[in-house]
Amino acid sequence: MRPDLWRSISLLSKSGADTRLGRRSLLGLGAALTGSLALGPKQAHAEPSPASPPADAPWSQSIGPGVVDRPYGRPADTEAGVIRRNVPWLTAGTESSISFSPLQDLHGIITPNGLFFERYHAGRPDVDPDQHKLMIHGLVERPLLLSMKDIVRFPSVTRIHFIECPANGGMEWRAAQLNSLQFNHGMISCAEWTGVRLSTLLEEVGIKKEAKWVMVEGADGAHMNRSLPLDKCLDDCLVVYAQNGEALRPEQGYPLRLVVPGWEGNVSIKWLRRIKLGDKPWHSREETSKYTDLMPDGTSRGFTWLIDAKSVITFPCPEKPLDRPGLYEIRGLAWTGNGKVRRVDVSTDGGVNWQSARLHEPVLSKALTKFTLPWRWDGAPALLESRVIDETGYVQPTIAQLRKQRGTNSVYHNNSIQTWQVKPDGSVFDVQLV
Amino acid sequence: MSSSSRRILLLCAGMLAAGTIACVAEPGYYGYGERPTPEQIAGWDIDARGIDGVGLPPGRGNVHKGAEVYAEQCAACHGTFGEGEGRFPKLVGGAGTLRDDRPELTVGSYWPFAPTLWDYINRAMPMPAPHTLSADDVYALTAYILNLNDIVPNEFVADRESLPKVKMPNRDNFLWIDPRPDTMAKPCMNGCADPADIRIASTAEGKKLTPRTTGPLDTMQQR
Lengths: 434, 223
Prior knowledge:
The complex is a heterodimer of chains A (434) and B (223). Chain A has three domains: 3-79, no CATH class; 104-298, Sulfite Oxidase, Chain A, domain 2 (Alpha-Beta Complex), CATH 3.90.420.10; 310-431, Immunoglobulin-like, CATH 2.60.40.650. Helices cover 16% and strands 28% of the residues of chain A. Chain A contains eight helices and 23 strands. Chain A has helices spanning 3-14, 19-37, 41-46, 148-153, 181-185, 198-205, 230-235, 399-406; strands spanning 97-98, 119-120, 133-138, 144-147, 157-164, 188-197, 213-218, 225-229, 238-243, 246-247, 257-259, 272-278, 293-294, 300-301, 310-315, 326-335, 341-347, 355-356, 358-360, 369-377, 382-390, 419-422, 428-433. In chain A, the strands form six sheets. In chain A, strands 4-3-12-7-8 form a five-stranded mixed beta sheet. The longest helix of chain A is centred in the N-terminal third of the chain and has 19 residues, at 19-37. Chain B has 223 residues and is mainly alpha-helical. Chain B has two domains: 3-33, no CATH class; 42-173, Cytochrome Bc1 Complex, Chain D, domain 2. Chain B has a two-stranded antiparallel ribbon. The longest helix of chain B has 15 residues, at 3-17. Mean pLDDT of chain B is 91; it is low at 1-11 and 13-21. At the A-B interface, helix 2, strand 4, helix 4, helix 6 and strand 12 of A face helix 2, helix 5, strand 3 and strand 4 of B. Strand 23 of chain A pairs antiparallel with strand 4 of chain B.
């Protein structure tokens, strides 16, 4: 921390007065604080803070900005490092790429809209909602063209669901590679979605009895399209225009997207513009050359839509190490495309012994579920793992169990148990066990 | 309200009261929106199905023409002969590598259906100006890329008749039914392994493959 900065601020506030100047200095302070937090917990104890007791802090001796100073609002300046991040070497450019949610800095089951992971195939389109249309046609009784105003008139539903890219963890099939919670698990986010059931729209157009498949397509430059079985569309799919209570973000498909609960994120088409019913799947590029899983014998699995049960400890993690021995709360998230999380077990010894964690309400179907377990760390090396069991009885596998079935080249659907190695100094590393 | 929609409403009310799930309304029940014109549908109805080519439009293109269009529209990213520039996708090669330790997944070695190639080029390429090529040019590019992969001869002409008949080398190697769950772990709670057997096989410590996860966005350009 910069003592000179503190001094100038407290001088300003003591001398009374120029709050405008004070605010500017505080903005500069934001950057200084961010830098100091990045140093880690140990240094934080080292020197007494001039704004902590017994001192009265400068923000306690001044008047702050008024209402609508920030008409929309934004996080505190000191949270500026809590952002989506990408791995530049992963893709040729950022337009067909992915970014990761900062799970290490999130605290619940809802992902803030600005931190929801992004996946584009032709960049983020800037769609005009007044001109955007949804066309429904093909094997239907009555083709339909809907404006956004039309869509919002239909009976609305609100549901909380996660969306996970099936490539989440895809860099770890061979070995532990990325020393980060954000980069190994951040292709998942969870939001409250509001829209109309897809089944309502399909009933409105009338489904011909030969129809068995539904093609969904986006208005982005990739004209991204996937095939879905009609049964899933009639079961729980949503055509949504709102996310966490406000209009969808452009990054998430503004003004309209599909949400296919519990299935790989790629099928939840963003900037949704067309729904076509047919008697066979389309075998689009995204469901043949991509989003298929190559097995060791050279065959591939296609139409592997389901997100199997998965969990991860979000504290501690490589980004959030431990400080000193003592009592901690191990925290994490669990989810399954099969419905609800039934149980999460946590091990601190690499899977020899397990204890069931506490699940936090709400435990919702096809949504993130929070779990915690108190843990007294004695300062010894530890191997932390979490293991979810979903309502079908399916148990999250180890990476070794997955490799035995699928080898190392299937890219997608790595839902294995994450192991975090805790060293005596409290640092945490991504490892895989024999 | 017509008598039939009134009947449906009554039926729905009864079902809701009985606690059963959502009721089915007849087509046009809400009556929102408009019926698209044939021209509106034709403008957006761009899909071609992989397995049988249904949806492929009229038009045609040969390998020679495809080479010209490719040089102009595709080579900058995908390489002169489909070898891929930088991290842009390779389009050619990889035949026989799918069981290898480092398999090469390309149009030739991996894609199961030729019409899918037409569909994808048409809808998504060229990347800076997607869906701007003529149907003929897309047919020509499809012919050229298949030819680069030794799947069709030099004199091949791609059209709605010929493309569905092209047998892609990897066509029969896809299982289109999900076989999961394919692991059967048991949730053991105590003494699940000999502590002596718990060893670290690999660690990400020191690999430095990831950007920083603090501070401003790290583009990894400074390393």
